[in-house]
Amino acid sequence: MTHVIQKQVVARALYRLREQRTHTLFIGYIHLQQRSAELERLEDLQPDFTSFFKQFLRVGNHPLGTPYIKLFTEQRASEKNLWLNENIAGSYAPSSLRPDQPFRKVVNIIGGKYSLPIEHATLAYEYLLYSHPVRVADLALVLYRDYGLTDDVSNIFDIINIFAYEFGYSDYLAAPPNNDFRTLFRYDGVEEWNADLLELI
Predict the structure, then answer these.
(1) Tally of domains in the chain
(2) Domain match, 199 and 175 both
């Protein structure tokens, strides 16, 4: 059987993510972390921000011209800052990112190539998370909201394990997450998601 995460669960997780002050571009950094794990290197990460956003953040019934949900904001969350426009790649273009901006304090961009310093998680914690880690349960629930989940995924810890593995924070499913994960994420409130989390499709 195939399950999906219930819509009301996703809505609550999204609300909590947006209530915490987090830099808007943190999600782009997460994509670079994923690319780093896939390529097994920190240099020349060759990101495809548009494809990443289409995979994880595109919403069906979106306002005209703004197809992507905005997971994180430094401002007070409201309907006015809930959506992102189609030009995602432009937001992460070197010409759009000044050297003094928080994203550039975490990500190196030289000659149009993106790389991460060894201590990137610590830098992201300071400059993108404002020294307050993200609730990993909420993030995983929103990212995998449209995915069909098989019977071996039955609780919130299974979904978090998928996130940790697919984004390069663990070596295999159910493996303990690494130090970068523990720097950036917290398990607060995980237990509340185990009841009525999934529904059949």
Answers:
(1) 2
(2) yes
Beta-bridged to residue 115, according to DSSP, are 108
Are residues 11 and 51 part of one domain?
no
Q: What is the pLDDT of residues 68-122, one digit of tens each?
A: 999 999 999 999 999 999 999 999 999 999 889 999 999 999 999 999 999 999 9
Residues 109 and 29 in one domain: yes
Tally of CA atoms within 13 A in the half-sphere of 4 that contains its CB: 11
Domain shared by 102 and 31, yes or no = yes
CB 134 within 8 A of CB 56: no
